[in-house]
Amino acid sequence: MPLLARFLPHLAGFNLGPRRALVAVSGGTDSLVLLDLLARSRAEHGLDLLVAHADHGIHPDSAEIAGRVAAVAAALELPFESAALGLGPEASETTAREARHGWLESLRRDRGAAWLLTAHHSDDQAETVLMRLLRGSGPAGLAAMADREGALIRPLLQYSRADLVDYACERDIAGWDDPANRDPRFMRSWLRHEILPLIRARLPQVDRDLIQAGRQAAVDRSAWAQLLDGTPELDWQHEADGASISLEGLLAWDGPLALRLLSAMGRRLGTVLGPNRSGRILNLARSGVSGAVIQLGGGWRAERAFERIRLVQAVQAPAAAALTIEGATGSAIWGSEWVLDWRREEAPDHQDRNGLSAWFIPETMTVRRWLAGERIQPLRGRGQRLLARCFQDARIPRSRRERWPVLESGGRLLWVPGVCRSGELMPAPGQAALRVEARGR
Question: CA-CA distance, 113 to 21, in Å (whole number)?
């Protein structure tokens, strides 16, 4: 059956709908075949196609290749976007891939595209499984590429390189053969042109077997991911800077099982937790004290807080410069996680001490970071209390406190949203007041 006839029902199975889709086109045969298939089937899938080409600047002819892709897009009457990444001839495979993916994802968001389509095929999948095996990946890593990962769609993953080459010949599609694809200095090129041909001579089914191994690993990875949601005792919770699970729920699992759950937790958040990192987190769960933190690298850290294990990404604390709240109405972003809105409104009969809204006698107020050792006199309370104790009572992890807003006026501590309201600037019920609301971004 012709490739186009097989491609149409396969693409329909993704249910992409009539939305905008970014098509990554390198200028090689594979991506040009994908673009041709999509362009020929526009009436069936209804996608609004946008062609995107990343000019790495690695090969001296890269600008010429970008021009060729632009010409193909123009011939198909499709819009075209390109960026010169300027990586230079010494850039590694990893550097090029990360730069390309970063630009494509940024462009997808900027152009309002729902999907990013790439031309990875089954031969790429077999190479990826073998490459990860040789680099020591565990079962989750061997799952390799999925045909769908969020906005990323790989609609050619079930077809072979031979299928695409045959289609290109039939359609007279001439792709650019990047010399880097044959350079044995690069791991994938070495496997593709030197190692896999030797293995195929002895084991002709090696590509099929590698892909099957990847599928089995994908089932295993999916099962562990489902356990995070399907085990109530774990109490999985998304948080502003990461996620957390119940300490008791985690420790109820035997050691190896707990390690696999932690690895699944990392994958969901976009970071790799191999045996060493997962083991360190498990040790923290078993013997650490509340507030203890371990650094995991890549900007990630694990924290034991209030009988939970948190996996969080370091977020830069807000600048020390304060935010001023004044006037009858307004809204402002504070730091990376908070939005504050204010407006004139009559004070209610009752105010919560730990609410996310508070009413004040109108006066210029300042939003800033909290300072260690600060004290507040809680509403309807006696004496002053350390803010650190208030944070503990509100179960705010130590790693989040440096990014928590504090309201003051004239040196008087007024309010820590969701933590503690003082009795300062307290309006009488029904009195004209300024209502301030704090919410997460």
Answer: 5
User: pLDDT at residue 318 above 60?
Assistant: no
Instruction: In whole angstroms, give the CA distance from residue 312 to residue 291.
Output: 13
DSSP 300-315: EEEEEETTEEEEEE--
Residue among 426, 423, 429, 428 nearest 379 (CA): 423
Nearest 5°: the CA angle 151, 159, 50 is 40
Cα distance between residue 385 and residue 392, in whole Å? 12
Q: What is the pTM of this model?
A: 0.71
CA 312 to chain centre: 12
User: Is the pLDDT at 60 greater than 80, yes or no?
Assistant: no
What is the spatial distance between Cα 65 and Cα 27, in angstroms, rounded to a whole number?
6
Q: What is the pLDDT of residues 215-244, one digit of tens each?
A: 999 999 899 989 998 999 999 998 878 899
Q: Where are the alpha helices (DSSP H) in 233-342?
A: 247-251, 255-269, 275-287
Give the burial string for 35-58 (b: 16+ CB within 10 Å, else e).
Answer: bbbbbebeeebebbbbbbbbbbbb
Residue at 143: amino acid letter: A
Which is it for strands 237-239 and 300-305: parallel, antiparallel or unpaired? unpaired
pLDDT by residue (tens digit) across 327-371? Answer: 999 999 888 788 999 999 999 999 998 899 999 999 999 999 888
Task: Report d(CA 407, CA 397) in Å as an integer.
Answer: 20
